[in-house]
Amino acid sequence: MNAPVATDVASGRATPASAPHGTHITIRGLYKSFQGQPLYTNFDLDIPKAQITSVFGPNGCGKSTLINMVSGLLPFDAGQVLFDGKTLTDTKISYVFQNYREALFPWKRAIDNIKYPLQLAGQSKAECNRRAEELVASFEIKFDLHRYPYELSGGQQQLVSIMRALAPHPEVLFLDEPFSALDYEMTLFMRDKLQDIFQATRTTMILVSHDLEEAVYLADQVLLLTRRPTKIAEIVPFRSARPRHPETLTSDEFVRAKARCLDVFQREVRR
Q1: The overall pTM is greater than 0.90
Q2: 217 lies in some domain
Q3: Can you give the C-alpha Rg of the chain in angstroms?
């Protein structure tokens, strides 16, 4: 049964009555099937505001499908998704894709890829340039952004993708395995930069990762999913202070959180 929905007369926002305080994204009664096979059935979830939520689970459980539905990239069969009581159309979101090579416009220079969502929103040339300069300074960019994507390394292309996603100051940032195609050195760099951006903006982030270490390290909470039909297996909090460093990976708190996630994951894989 779906949660009751109340309307705030002053704001006109529709908010499920059961959403706890501090919730940013409220999902109620979500249904999705493929070729008649149920994937999500009456799925409920509350995602907190100004936190990073990692999504982790068995292969094929629908991790990417979940954030694709929530972000509006994939339609769902039934249910409701609200962002701070607003619909998707009234919410500013951005998405970082796993396949950065296909995500960037090959006919646009890197700097113009970054400015694109700002231009789409009708911002002036001066505003676009100012925001691009802010991002370049924040990420300490050393390579030439006037080159085309095919002239950049994989790590540089994904860096451009993330800068483009952050350019319009999104309320929610979705990241679908954003570092999986990068080498380890670049992955460590990108993890640090993502934390810097999060601490500076407190943007609500949802991160899908197949790397359990990464999922725990970056998150305030890890959403663990079951096998199909997909349910919430458990939500494991990780409240270690930020910024986090490589030393965090050997802390007692991290080891406990990762071990708990691994226990739940292995239980679901064997189910």
Answers
A1: yes
A2: no
A3: 19
